[in-house]
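This follows on from our talk about sequence and fold. I would like you to pick a protein and set down its sequence and fold. Go ahead and set the record down below:
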Amino acid sequence: MKHLKELYNYREMIFSLVRKDLRGRYKGSVLGFLWTFINPLLQLVVYTLVFSIVMRAGYDKYYMFLFVALVPWMFFASSVQDGSIAILKEKDMVKKIYFPREVMPIATVTSGFVNMLLTFIVIFLVLIVTNFGVNFKALLCLPVVMIVEYILCLGVALIVSALTVYLRDLQYVLGILTMALQYGTPVMYGFEKIPEGYGWVNTLLNLNPMTPIITIYRQILYYKEVPNMISLLYVLGLGIVFIIIGFAIFNKLQKGFAENF
């Protein structure tokens, strides 16, 4: 509790780092902050062309089926990859002043979360412009799944950010694993696309904590259904365990951070 209180006392530093990251993300580019919206839209166009035209995914309004899952997936992927170098990219600050080192991954994940919220503006605009419609009762569940995903991403980021200071190759390994995990998560397809006789694939998919998260986002925004939130308990529990492990790893390793830069 003492350590949590200390983190709370440094909340202004966290907010400052989040603002710095959001402002500097596309600094120097012509379109600047607009890339927050353009980047996911361009990815959406590419995936839609490949899976709805070339490979024929067979979903009605596939662009929406994909978009509502792709945006939260991008938040998870950025939390893992950017989180892994959260300490390294601020190494000069770490060497010069004292502050709880956990501030770095917390700020990184929070910045990605804010970026996801801004991108959801695009999702809602697409829902309105295309007359796709929404279920307002189902939308009440949206903040819950967002918070649970944030907890999971924070737990993962705390772990990988501390380990990467000592294992620099981990950031590259995580990039490959994240790319592979995207295909092991129902982002570009649904469970019904898995052929009969491959029940073990369903089992593996359900062990993936991002599976219930993506499924619930899609139930709310694409199928317009009130989701079964029970599956989120597994993700919430796993996220809390990851956060506890992350704080334990920081407590063990942070004394040697400066010597490993």
The mean pLDDT is 85.
